[in-house]
Amino acid sequence: MCPHGHGQLTGWGGYWRWVRAERLPAERIWIRRGRCARCWQTQALLPSFLFARRLDASQVIGPALALAAGGSGARPIAQQFAVPHSTVRDWWRRLRVRAPALLAALLALATSLETTPVEIATDGAAAVLEALEHSWGRARARLGARLPDRWAFWSLISGGLALAPHTSPPLPGALTAV
To answer: φ and ψ at 84, to 5 degrees?
Structure first.
């Protein structure tokens, strides 16, 4: 669907993109693009294991951020996942900068899935990951095993923009996506 609500997207080519998975060399994958027939805007149709403008797969970024939220430093995390420490530092910095908006959006999603309040025991960027866990758990309770892992879920509900280097809404259409 068009992100502006105009209708279905039709195929509109694509592009090659590099992806690095845990402890594997980077490889190129084809990213399809879709175009809205009404507004003519094109959208990259990212797979759930990718975030926009990030080389590494969500299964690398997510656990690395969880370790950082637990107090681990960028260098040990980078060694564990075989990525540059500056990359881990950039992920953590982006999460901290976007934490208020991400937290609000994830809590809204969690309470829309189940009306009971969400208790958050941490603050800042760690609270975002805690709210993600609550949102994912509630979505999993509703949708069952067909829901992907929490990191792919985060990419899906954010349209790949959770760690994007801009200030667009962090979870576009998340309340209608689940």
So the answer is: -65, 145
